[in-house]
Design goal:
The structure is a homodimer. Chain A has helices at 11-20, 51-55, 75-80, 93-108, 111-119, 144-155, 182-185, 208-213, 231-239, 281-297; strands spanning 2-5, 25-28, 41-44, 62-65, 84-87, 136-140, 159-164, 175-178, 191-194, 219-222, 245-248, 268-270. The two termini of chain A are 28 Å apart. Chain A has two domains: 2-91 and 279-297, NAD(P)-binding Rossmann-like Domain (Rossmann fold); 93-270, Rossmann fold. Chain A contains ten helices and twelve strands. In chain A, the strands form two sheets. Chain A has a seven-stranded parallel β-sheet, covered by helices on one side. In chain A, strands 2-1-3-4-5 form a five-stranded parallel β-sheet, with helices on one face. At the A-B interface, helix 4, helix 5 and helix 6 of A face helix 4, helix 5 and helix 6 of B.
């Protein structure tokens, strides 16, 4: 049994795996695909496998994606070979929810203003601080991450409205609406957060009319995928001050081009696709992988968090 | 019955009072003490009354302080005249707890780094982000504000240790210690927050040894009063990197002098005594005052949140 990691866990994490599974041959090889033809299981961040790579495999039965996004995977090639794909749904939830709350609280409590005045050596108490408490938030994508954001927002006294394809009930959401009905609730939201994955349904889901429907004081935050909004629509909304702030962790083009107007706009916060960063990431991925590998070795063929390659999540 | 406000509520708030109490003569006079001798009740931020002012009063029975700090009040003169003092204990709790969480999450999720890179137009993903979740926090002063901070920290998965004079149980604290035993728990804290008032017991409570006992990675936050630590001790601790960050909302000398080293120190965040700021402040003070004034007019002589002038809180 050969398990190929296409990224490098820390030494102690590699040891943890070898100690736990003495019978397994682990390969930890970054940007080196020579072991793909022999691998039974591949553990990847999901951005490094091509259709050709999949064709080169002979024994591959399971791809564990140590990440949430699978849109860069060769879906058809994987489906054709009947390879099981699973991800680590939920392991981003703590850092991402903390990032969401960090950005919201920072803007509400005027931290950019406070930091600027320190740089200018100015004792300036004229902060325009406001409170998160009492706000209304819409969360596009109230899954594992979105519901964790919802849970924390509720602790701050925020009314949460989840928005997904079906409008079916979700955890930590006071209300739900479907994508089709989002225009009805946008006018009452102070905060709009998307953690949606990239799928056929979410691509360019938000249009100019959605931003026009939002309050002028609203904060929009995209921690999901950059293709949720066409960039020219997002830029227009901010240049026209349709809303107060956009916190963008993801962009149509990444890295964001050097000459993009966002860089110098006061109402746009550029977070360079880092909202899920955390020193605890690989450790948590292994916490998901290890019990699944034990089960796999005992004959189970359905790891937790299976991904439907057709649906896209 | 004459009620003197020594600050100016907004017009609609003044109207609210007049509509609610047509029989009361309200005076809203900023920096004008000519009405003090006639006033039955004074509503003040607590920083504008001298012993001489108190002596000049003839009818004054109740001072309502629309703030938490009463250390600038002429305690002896007030006690001598038997004037009842009450404050608005708790109305700072929402903005202050949000400020505390904003600063903590901002540092944990690397927002200063993210903001800096945007200013430099650099797409730099090498954030040293970490998580609030799983931390241990000590809260000096687990009263209304401290417990609200504790409640929110617990929602983020933080273990909370309250520290007060007696070590008696407090809300939203997983553990308690007394001031005398704080050195025993400081080495295990990732976060140390003080919201203590200025009293005989809290003045210079934290010494060099306390900062030396903290982790090098610890974040210290003072949202209470500037005399909790002598400034030269605080400065030493930060210049010697005894801890990772100090977030200071209060200082021995305010405004902080222009030439103070803090202004240019990367490990010190200067928040110019604004952590309690909120657009909702006066509104909430009136929400406390109005029912109390109704009760007072019906003969009650003990408003809610009475302050013990001897004890200092």
């Amino acid at each position: 049994m050969e398990v190929l990691f296409t990224f490098l866990p820390r030494d102690n994490q590699q040891e943890r795996l070898r100690a736990e599974f003495p019978e397994v041959n682990f390969q930890f090889l970054y940007k080196d695909k020579t072991h793909l033809p022999k691998a039974d299981i591949v553990v990847t961040y999901g951005e490094d496998l091509t259709a050709q790579d999949i064709e080169s495999t002979n024994n591959l039965k399971w791809i564990m994606v140590a990440s949430a996004g699978i849109e860069k995977m060769p879906h058809a090639a994987i489906a054709e070979k009947g390879i099981v794909v699973s991800n680590v749904r939920g392991i981003h939830k703590t850092p991402m929810a903390e990032s969401a709350l960090a950005h919201l609280l920072s803007l509400k409590r005027a931290l950019p203003f406070i930091y600027d005045n320190q740089r200018k050596k100015e004792w300036n108490r004229k902060t325009k601080s406001s409170e998160l408490s009492g706000s209304t938030a819409i969360i596009f994508g109230p899954g594992a991450i979105g519901s964790e954001i919802g849970r924390l927002l509720q602790a701050f006294g925020v009314h949460t409205i989840g928005c997904n394809r079906t409008g079916k009930e979700s955890e930590s959401m006071d209300e739900m609406v479907s994508f089709n009905n989002s225009l009805n609730v946008l006018p009452k939201a102070d905060i709009i957060i998307s953690v949606l994955p990239s799928t056929k349904e979410t691509r360019h889901l938000l249009k100019a009319e959605h931003f026009q429907a939002m309050k002028e004081t609203a904060i929009f935050m995209n921690l999901g995928r950059g293709d949720l909004v066409e960039d020219r629509i997002m830029l227009d909304a901010m240049q026209n001050n349709e809303i107060a702030y956009a916190v963008l962790d993801v962009f149509e083009q990444e890295p964001l081009p050097d000459n993009h107007p966002y860089w110098t706009m006061d109402n746009v916060i550029i977070s360079p696709h880092v909202s899920s960063h955390s020193g605890k990431y690989v450790e948590r991925a292994l916490d998901v992988f290890i019990p699944n590998l034990h089960a796999w070795l005992s004959g189970a063929k359905t790891p937790t968090n299976p991904v439907d390659m057709e649906r896209g999540y």
